[in-house]
Amino acid sequence: RLWLVEEGCKSPEFAADIYAMCARDPLFFMSCFVYCYDPRSSIKISPFVPYEFQEFAVSEYCKSLGKEDIFTDKSRDMGASWLHLILIDWMFLFQEMSSILCVSRVEDLVDKKDDPDSLFWKIDFIHKNLPPFLRPPAGSEYRKMLHFYNPNTGSTINGCSTNDDVGRGGRRTVILLDEFA
Hints:
Blueprint: H1 2-10, H2 12-24, H3 26-33, E1 35-37, E2 45-47, H4 52-64, H5 80-94, E3 99-104, H6 107-110, H7 119-128, E4 143-144, E5 147-150, E6 155-161, E7 174-177
Parallel strand pairs: 3-6, 3-7
Antiparallel strand pairs: 1-2, 4-5, 5-6
Helix pairs in contact: 1-2, 2-3, 2-5, 5-7
């Protein structure tokens, strides 16, 4: 990880190659560049290193993205929320014109600044810990309440709470229904 980041920061050509590799392979992206946060751990910030079952899940999810519904039945501490958000963020960062919707029980669980339980806090955290050559461009249009926009790819991530009109009136590449029960 460190070598890839150092070389990418030194060489624009190497950074472009890394970007292309990340765009082709979400497992490469998450295994080499993504960090996660766990407030219960003695090491709060750690590299996301997918388990074998998560690698299989990524493969299956990528086959289904934008084509069919996927339901993830899981127990606690399986890393499912992080895994889903990393995949969504991978689409946002590297895939052209992705339209993504993240939904949770209440709006604060979707986007509440400085709250690690919020889905968008986790995406902000992922971005903050990416090397500069993989981050989305900074600016006021990039991040607003309940909204991310990537001018490099034209992709968006929007959020809302579960309500009677959730997802109505638009087309999405992916919808994440977190805490669906």
